[in-house]
Amino acid sequence: MIARPPIIIIGMSRSGTNILSQMLEALGLFLGQKKDRNHEAIFFLELNIWLLAQCSGGLEHPASIRYLLEDKEARALFSDFIRYIMKTPKVVSFLGIGKYLRYGTPANLDIPWGWKDPRNTYTLPIWLDIFPDAKVIHIYRHGVDVVQSLRIRREKGLLRLKERHSWVKQFYWFYLMMKFLSTNRKFIDFRCASMEEGLSMWEEYVNEARAHVRKLGDRAIEVKYEDLLTEPNRILKNLGDFCKLQTRDTDIERVAKQIKRERAYAYIGNPELEAFAIQVAERLRAQGY
User: Fold this and answer.
1) Tell me, what CATH number does 17's domain have?
2) pTM value?
């Protein structure tokens, strides 16, 4: 049994990490047994949230992780602690009982495996301490489409607290209290309420991810979301080779059918978003758009 290093998927929320991970999983990349609705392995998601919380950071303000990364003693101890956690029964949520009994820890997996989480973009140095041979996939998307998707998600979050029939509201709010307060889950992401703030967050994530890609050389690959939508077969073939998946053309063809091409440059046709894109055109060009 020869253990394989993981494939770590990075990139900002709403940039295509979800569809990318689903397609790679369909092609044979193991991404965990128990995942949330965003296709993120709960085991690694919780560890990333915990790492950021140690520095008072989170999904919208992850850069504070630098305080941990710059503290050599703490960084080494945190990495050792995570190695320990990956050998405990808690990891069953990722491996499943069968793989846990066989491998004991993800570090022993001899199959193509990995996980995705936007937070990986900032916690990656810790994971590279633990898995120094890991490979990285960075997926990025047009900034205005990312901002708009975040705004829509915010509105859906706020709907939870808006007016409902009075006889339902008290029961529904009790459900929300138990679901969100006890687990410290978030209703919404506030930073994305402003298009300007949303775009700034997009720039921060893309710049951070590309810094990792440059350092890793041939152990990292970038995927433009719009290219994935318009040329899925070519992109998936490249990714399959990168992840060392045993993919056939028929497999790629089957998986590529999940693509919804109309999501590429979805902001076009919306006057508000088109005007914003013109306003920030120079910033978009700096990131390849």
Assistant:
1) 3.40.50
2) 0.92
